[in-house]
Amino acid sequence: MTNNATDVSYAMPGLDKGTATSAVGRLAGAVWRSARSLRNCGGSRRRVVAGVIALSAVCMAAAAIATVQLRDQALAVAGAQSGGLALVLANQTERAFDAVEALQSGLIEEIRQADIRTPEAFRAHMTGLAIHNDLRLRASLLPQLDAITAIADDGTLINFSRYWPIPAVNVADRDYFKALASNPRLASYLSTPVPNRGTGTWTMYLARKVTAPDGRFLGLLLGAVELAYIERIYQAVAPAADAAIALFRDDAVQLARFPHQERTIGRSFAGPELFRAVGLGADTATLQRRTSSTDGRDRLYAAHHMARHGMTVVVTRTVDSVLAQWRRQRAVLIGATLALLGLVATAGAIVLREIRHQSRLADVLTAKAQAEQARTGAEARLAVAAARTQADAERHARDQRFGIAMNNLSQAMCMFDTEDRLVVANARFADLFNLPHAGLTEGVPLDMLLPASESGSGLACVIGELRYQDRHGRVVRELEDGRSLAVNYERVPDQGWLVTLEDVTERRDAEARIAHMAHHDALTDLPNRVLFHARLSEALARSRRGEACAVLCLDLDHFKSVNDTLGHPIGDALLKEVTSRLLRQVRELDTVARLGGDEFAIIQTSVDQPKDATALARRLIDALRQPYELDGHQVVIGTSIGISVIPDDGNDPDQLLKNADMAMYRAKSDGRGRYRFFEPEMDAWMQARRLMEVDLRRALAEGEFELYYQPLMNMQTRTVSSFEALLRWNHPTRGLVSPAEFIPLAEEIGLIIPLGDWVLNRACSDAALWPDSVGVAVNLSVMQFGHRSLVAGVADALRRSGLPPKRLELEITESVLMQDSDLTMDILHGLRALGVRIAMDDFGTGYSSLSYLRSFQFDKVKIDRSFIEALGQGGDSDAIVSAVTGLCERMGMTTTAEGVETRAQLEHLGALACTEVQGYLLSRPRPASEVAAMCHAIDHGELVPMLAR
Ligand code: C2E
Ligand code: CA
Ligand code: CA
To answer: pTM here?
Structure first.
């Protein structure tokens, strides 16, 4: 099969012309034989015979030459068209893959910046809804990209743009995974097409390897390209019904094909000769004529190899159908020639008969024959001309079909011959440069087109330049009107040159968007961690020249509860509003970034540190705690800020950020809504905190928690009305740990939910054993209000302990009410419906305690210790406490003064009409076993001295 392959380069020399001329040849033989029988005639007769033979030969030669020419032409045109098409499609296919690759590179760069070193870290980094949303957004930018997938080092799917939650899938058996996991030198792999495990459609994976800085294999990023997309491109431009367009990987595996052929997708064509024949590896168009290994038909193959992606586009047409029109032309030609020869023969026969009967008239007849000869010669030329006209008409029709195909290309294209005269240009080309369609006729010189387009369209700038430099390849040119054109210039040996142009303005914009996305947070459009890191490096460089700056790390207080109770859309709106408030507080040179979730960071460039950082931190805390109005909800949050100063607190970006982060944690645990500068001791503190986290997770199961009780005394009866349950942690090595130290951490790690449940049950069952007149108060965390199950949990604790609901009091802080959410209110009313009492704790310390008193009918208000401490010292406290007790009384609420430590304070409170007091003066919190003793002492007027025990 290989042997009969014939090289048909663009000029197509050496065609086998045998079949083309054989019919004419047979005819010629017949004429020749009949002419021989007349050989014996006289001289004039011989001349007649010679004339007939000469005439016939002329006719047949003309016909044969025309046939061969037409055939050559048909093959050359089809070849050139297929070659041009292969080039254009290679271009388009390449671009589709380039864009997917660029997107993956962006992600890989972000991973590199995050300094991920282990497969576990990679897995952690790529897990979660936020990453899923990010991937989904990115995938939606490219029509050819069906999905983006992150794969762990063992082949399990970590994240996936298409589905949430992430389905359990393992791809360890797939070719791309095996190839990339086992070959350390391989960075990317184009998969064999596989039926998608989710959708069933044929999908190709553009797999990219993710490695740690030391080269360790971390996993893969997959871009799923749906074959139907590639095949749709091919379908749009397929020039004729017999044409097939296919995409092959360099190892000859077929990736896509139009018309789609289920059985050949994914099959390797390496064995068959095709791939050697199309000249894989040569980065140019090649053209071949050979017998197909798939269907055994004689075909023309035009191929274009894409070295960068290791793929080849092959356009094939059957020689049969390429020559179909030519065959019809040939039949017409043969018919016309036969008719002519018949005419000549008849004329000859008449002449000869005349000679035989009337030799006298030989001269006349000779003259007559000569006249006849002249006439038939003219007719022969006419017949050939007629055949040519028809051939032209058919070629015109074919050109029209080609024109339609050309005009279907999404790219503009034009072909010029070696003398720079237009061969063909499509409608898109005319539109691109505002040229009149009618002006683009075959033969128009390039020089005439250039000025015609000068009115701002830039044809001269784009094509003229390429043509005169005669540079192969692809460039992108910006036009004056803002458009970007990708221009591909290709010279075709001996034929001329071809330019394809594409308006890539939109894609450029999309690429710019992708690049922007790689460095910005999608929600707030603030710089992300990657860009922040880069800016921090720049700031460090400047600081070496003496410019001081500061890094501020911000974490929003209570953001999580807003998100949980009001939903993500409100949470998102809040983050945007926070962003604009932050931006209003900084100067243009400063960088505000969102590092993730509710974490923000600022680089403050300034000459006067740390004074300026202090001022900024104060402004930020103040700006962020102003109430937010979001979709009809009023929301209040706060922020905790940690600050590190350049260059004192570090000289690399990671160190500075880590230190500011540590200071931020410190600020948070010191009571939120504060700022802290980094101090070297924080490192140790942070480590201790991490240790505590480990211990805390274990403590509940180990039974290390215990409730202490502190009495509340009624001011009128001077007897114990209730005890407040206060949590204690008996740490195996550290002893008794204060709740102030571990409750914030328990909230952060979510342990507060089971722990709070434990407290409720224990407090209720303890109190069930006390006298009926003594109640119990339990503190609830704001985190517990994120779940409706709190109501059921309280009901459960009451039912199990048998404690009457009216003896249980729940203490909540203002932070619970900061989120004006339906869920919070539903829970509060649900609790109230159980018959329990609800108290507002730490009244006066929050932002807007008074306003919250109106949002819910509390049973009790507990006035914070800070007011009691300052009683009788000439400040505002007396007036405030007096106003609060008066107000509460009018609103039907009782009041408790917290933190009463001295008799003076107690007496003062009596005058201020407080309902209850609580504090060390009466008793410190003590174990449950001492409740009876505390009751006895207080009821009998034996107040425990404040410093006792
Ligand atoms: P809190 O609810 O305001 O509890 C009162 C705190 O003031 C207790 O600190 C108590 O020991 C302390 N205290 C009472 N009288 C005096 C006094 O006269 N002078 C001074 N200086 N302090 C006094 P404690 O037990 O360390 O608890 C601290 C905080 O931890 C509590 O503040 C509460 O917010 C939280 N907490 C304690 N137990 C729980 C619990 O079971 N669940 C939740 N969610 N939070 C709890
Ligand atoms: Ca309390
Ligand atoms: Ca309190």
So the answer is: 0.47
